[in-house]
Amino acid sequence: MGVGERQRAACAMRGQAWSPGRPSVARREDRVRFWRSIAAGVSSTDAAAVAGVSPAVGSRWFRDGGGMPPISLVSLSGRYLSFAEREEIAILHAQRVGVREIARCLGRSASTVSREVRRNASTRSHVRVYRARTAQWHAERRACRPKVAKLVTNEALREYVQERLAGAIARPDGEPAPGPDVRWVGRRHGRRRDRRWAKAWSPEQIANRLRIDFPDDESMRISHEAIYQALYVQGRGALRRELVACLRTGRALRVPRARTQGRGKKFVTPEIMISERPVEAEDRAVPGHWEGDLILGLDSSAIGTLVERSTRFTMLLHLPRMEGHGDGPRAKNGPALAGHGAEAVRDAIAESIGTLPEQLRRSLTWDQGLEMAYHVAFAVETGVPVYFCDPHSPWQRGSSENTNGLLRQYFPKGSDLSLFDADHLAEVARQLNGRPRQTLGWMKPCEVLVGIVASTD
Fold it and tell me: CA 446 to CA 313: how far, in whole Å?
C-alpha cells in the first residue's frame, strides 16, 4: 500500500475527509526531464539540475522510483490543457474575462474552459480561486489511475513468487538452515559480507517456471519485469523492499543501463583494443603473447598473473603493500598504497617481462582495469604493446581466467594475499608450471617453454 493509500485509509477510519495536501512545486514536465536525464546516464544530482529541482529532491525521486521512472516519458497530446494554457486562463480569469472569450483566445471549446475553472480551482483558502499551478497539480493527480498490481490481488501468486525468491534453505532432513543473521539497511550488500540465505530464484526463472507448474491456470502468470517493479518501486504494495537482498546483484535500486555503458576507461582507445591484436596471437601458434590479470584478496591485497597463451607458462607478480598503508587516508592523487595501483603493476610487469628472451615478448592482453592506466609508459619501456579486452568479456582472456581458477587452489577467495612473499609466489608458479596439461598433450608448461627457447637459439 502506497503512502497516499495509507493516508486515505487512516482518514476513512477517523471519519475525516482525505486531503491530498499542498501542490507539489515540481510539475510533470520537470519529472519527465529528470527521468530522461537519468535514462541518458546522468547522475541524480545533475538530473535534478536539469529538472530545476534541488539535489535532495532528485535523490528522493530516484530512490522512491527504485531507479525506474514511475511515469510515462511520452509527451502528452494536444488534447489536454498544458501548463501554459492554464496560466493564460488564470490571467484572463483574474481580469474577469468571460469563459467564451477565454475559449476563443485559446482555441478551445467553452465547455473545456468552464470545466477546468470549476474542477481545478484552489479551495484551501475557503474561496474558489483559480491558480495555474494548483490546477496543473489537480489535473496530474486525477490523471494518475494506477492499476492494482497483480501480486496484490492474487495471494496465491504472491506466495509463490515470495517463496521462491526468499524461501528458507532447508537441509535434506527438512531442518531449516537459517544461515547468517543479516540486517536490511536499505542499501546494497557490501563486499566480503554475509548475505541472507534464500532459495534466490531470479524473477525470470520464477516467471517462466509458472507455466510449467501451472499449465492450465492462466491466473498464475506474471512477467519478470512486474516482479522487479514490485521489488524496486515504492508504493506498489506487493513485495517487501528488503527482498531485493535475495537477488543475485543485491541492488537496492535499479541501475540505468546508460550508466553501465558509459563506464569505459579513458585510457583505452580503439587502436589498442583486442580486435587490433596481431592475428598470430589468436591461434596460439607463435609464442610470446601474454595475458594478465589481478587476483584480489582480503583487505585489498592482490597478486598479479601473467600467462603465456601458447605454452600456458605462468608468472606471478608480487605486489606488496606500500609504506603508509593502513595509517590513515592516503594523499590526494597519490599512489594506491594497497600495492596494486597503476605504477606498482607497471613496474612489476616490466621486471618480470624483462627476464624473458626477446622472442617471448610480443604482446600483453589485459582487461580494462585502472591498474593498467600506465600502459603507454610500459610499452615504451619494454617494447611490449598492450591490448585491452572489451568490457565485461573475460572469455577474451581464456588462458588467464583458467589459470586464475587453478591458482584459487593455493589462494582461496577471502585470503589475505599480502601474507605471501615473492619466494612463496615463485614456488607456487613453479608447481603450476610443473603440472601436465591436457591442452599441451600432457606436457608440462615449463617443458614446452624450454623447448621453444632451445629451438630458437
Answer: 6
